[in-house]
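Hi V.,

You were right to ask for the full record rather than a summary. Here it is.
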Amino acid sequence: MSFKSWKKLILIIVLAVISLAILTTGAGLLTWHKVKHNPVEELTSAAIDPATAALGDTVTVHSTYKVPWGRKPVSAELATIPGLLQLGEPEFKIVKHRWGWSEWQAETKLKTFRTGILAGAKLTVHFNPANGDADGQQFTHSIPSCQVNEITVSEPNLQIAEAIPNVPLTSRERWLLYGIIALVVVIAVLVIILIRKRKRTHIIPPWTLALEDIATLHHELRNGKLSLEGGLSRLTDIVRIYLEKRFSLNTTRQTTAEFMRELSRSGGPLPSRQRPFLSGFMTSADLVKFAKMPPDETMLNDAIEKAEILVNETKPVEEHGGKK
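Predicted structure:
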């Protein structure tokens, strides 16, 4: 067969498949439109299985319906009687498919907890309304009686619960238990380590930070990494920040004069012997900053030295036993 013949055959097959699909879809739509208003029919009434059970057994109530396309069950209510306990919600499932309709089954499980003939339970199943209808359909069934018998015991030598030996763990269960214990131990150790590490974490006091910053500043000035103007500005910030943190002051928006009045007031925190240096130093820094007065290297080195003295003399004194 030539390529042209194969091509023609394939085209015919494709067209046939497409035509069949279109016809099937059209027939399905036509059937759905035709049957969607049909009523739901009851195929089997509610039955209980098994009809005879032992105390504590589970029985099943089921019923089947012929449901046209476009319809389906939406809910079910079970009116139980003493001796039967409903287990979960009723379930619906399709057990058969036919052209134009499906067979649906409603199923509900019940637990028996009373002996004798149990009768009088009712099952109501609701279906969604057909298109254009206001109300759906419902079916109410009287559930057949169920004979519940006492439990028969054939074992002559019954043991009380405490006398029944424990079932040993399997190898898999034992390793699983060991793994859980090991995981708990690892988590506990990690928690303890984190707690201890957190306790060891301490805040660096402001006087230590200030002395470290002054030492870094001095080193950068000696190596030419910082200009005199920059050094004086940074030293001003170091001293001001230290005094604010050391004496719990809020002087962010204060001028130098207001800042000095806060520190030098009667009963203020700053020792009297440090006030002249601080006043002169802050005034010189303002002149450099605002009046563009050139800084003096000797003055800056002297200010650095006196700033270290100020920090050392105002930091808390260590008392006996390491307490401040």
